[in-house]
């Protein structure tokens, strides 16, 4: 999988590159509008992370030019603007997703994987992990072919863990992913723990071959 | 009071004075003219009578008025020379009117060729002062009423026509919102004053729009400039967190640092949200069903409620719907619900009451009532929540102000009650 990150802030570029390389992606970077235009003209990418606020041009124009050339590259917009209008405009222009700064790297990872999953239609949007099958379209979990009933939040939690497997997930990244922005720091997210406890129990009861490890005060980690 | 009524009020009071003064002046000048012409007539009579008496001495014996209007009586010379000619008002019994009526009488003296002195009295009927005043008042009253009535009608018609551009301008201004891509079109008018006003308003709005744009730009820039370094710092710490696996002490320190940076992010976001609300940048409105949104938001808090063992009760007396910005409605509801959960105790309860123009969220919590003045100000914290931004209720207040809605706090029956009311429902 080949990814391109178009971002003028070096710190952010480095973070994302470093994080995504661990996912076995080939990550290339463009630091401005001009070099990004050259790169997208020359190569095809599976997913492009596009910062709209570039110093020498609007990232949305880049998206327009990409779409006008009938390129099939997936695009995730990264913006510092948390504005619905911008989001709608970006999605209207054909972006696949929209992420507002600041974001958690685990969240970015989940979004990229979701986009790539949708692109690779042959898999039917199913992720296999050991004896587990996670069906994103049907929002269902099968362990050894047997369906495990999960509620909406439990599925979201498990999905987030699965795409970020073997990574330490910071608790607020998980809370934001599952409950959305407005949960912010409610009660220090201790309430998540009881959710995870239920999920663990269900996984264990059905003999799922994985472990969700809690790291006190920090977050969780799914180890396979 | 309407402008139309203002002018009428001034006009009617000043007309009372003007007309009264005019009536007095008119009365006296008319009376003067009446006296003048009556007295002239009497003088003329006098000449004729004296001339006739000098030829016909029979006249000199006519000592009573009877059917004619003069009487002559002899007086002694000395008295006649002393006396002066005199006009005066007197009264006399009139057969026709069967009453005493005011008469004008000329008393004069003359001598015949035989050195005989006579007193001559000539009378003529007079205008009756009282009747004249009454007639005058009557006429004045009618004049007054008709002037006011016609002024009212003309004013109504003319003013309505003249002020049309003003009302149009008002209408335009009322529907004008800063931040909406709607241009301001001042109404066409030939009246110089209105042209001036339109021009001034258009200039003012132009300046305001420019300032608004600048502010908006600043907010966006500030947001961008702050969010990016925050994002980088948080991400770097997350990377470090991953590398530090196994060393629990280090991981906790890093998690702590991230927590504070996230708090800063939330503060930044809330402040930007406040500015955006105050700058009326949430202009898109729709029909919002508060019942449905409250239910949905409460669902999102389900796990948190469950975890804290808080009972959530509903009292939906009516459907509460209004024209509102959807995002702001969600922020409003979520902030109030969160508030009720966070400032609650384990095993407490929350009651949501919905009426046709308001909803109230009541929660158990601290014993004592909160300071209802301060709780809506920025950075007010009740002490038990060090990690809250202290902006949640300030945001609620700003949203309420934007919609001229009422938001308030009551502490009754041991419950902290926050209510939101839309007094006018569109």
SSE diagram, text form:
The complex is a heterodimer of chains A (224) and B (426).
Chain A: E1 2-6, H1 10-21, E2 26-30, H2 33-42, E3 47-51, E4 53-54, E5 57-58, H3 59-68, E6 74-79, H4 84-92, E7 97-100, H5 105-119, E8 126-129, E9 132-135, E10 140-143, E11 146-148, H6 152-163, E12 168-170, H7 171-179, H8 190-205, E13 211-215, E14 219-223
Parallel strand pairs in A: 1-2, 1-3, 3-6, 6-7
Antiparallel strand pairs in A: 4-5, 8-9, 9-10, 10-11, 12-14, 13-14
Chain B: H1 3-55, E1 70-74, H2 77-82, E2 86-94, E3 99-111, E4 117-125, H3 129-162, H4 164-174, H5 192-243, H6 248-278, E5 286-289, H7 290-300, H8 302-307, E6 311-316, E7 321-324, H9 326-342, E8 349-355, E9 358-363, H10 392-402, E10 406-412, E11 415-421
Parallel strand pairs in B: 6-8
Antiparallel strand pairs in B: 1-4, 2-3, 3-4, 5-7, 8-9, 9-11, 10-11
Helix pairs in contact in B: 1-3, 5-6, 6-10, 7-9, 9-10
Number of strand segments of chain A: 14
Average per-residue pLDDT of chain A, rounded, comes to 86
Q: How many β-strand stretches of chain B?
A: 11
Q: What's the quaternary structure here?
A: heterodimer
Estimated structural class of chain A: alpha/beta
Largest sheet of chain A: 5 strands, parallel
The percent range for helix content of chain B is 40-55%
Taken as a percent bin, the fraction of beta residues of chain B is 15-25%
Which series of helices and strands of chain A comes N to C?
Answer: EHEHEEEHEHEHEEEEHEHHEE
Number of helical segments with 4 or more residues of chain B: 10
Biggest beta sheet summary of chain B: 5 strands, mixed
Largest interface: A-B, 46 and 46 residues
Helix/sheet category of chain B: alpha+beta
Quote the distance from N terminus to C terminus of chain B: 27 Å
Which sequence of strands runs across the widest sheet of chain A?
A: 2-1-3-6-7
Write out the strand line-up for the largest beta sheet of chain B, numbering strands in chain order.
Answer: 6-8-9-11-10
Rounded Rg of chain A: 18 Å
Principal-axes geometry of chain A comes out as globular
Strand content of chain A: 25-35%
Overall pLDDT of chain B, averaged? 85
Provide a count of the helices of chain A. Answer: 8
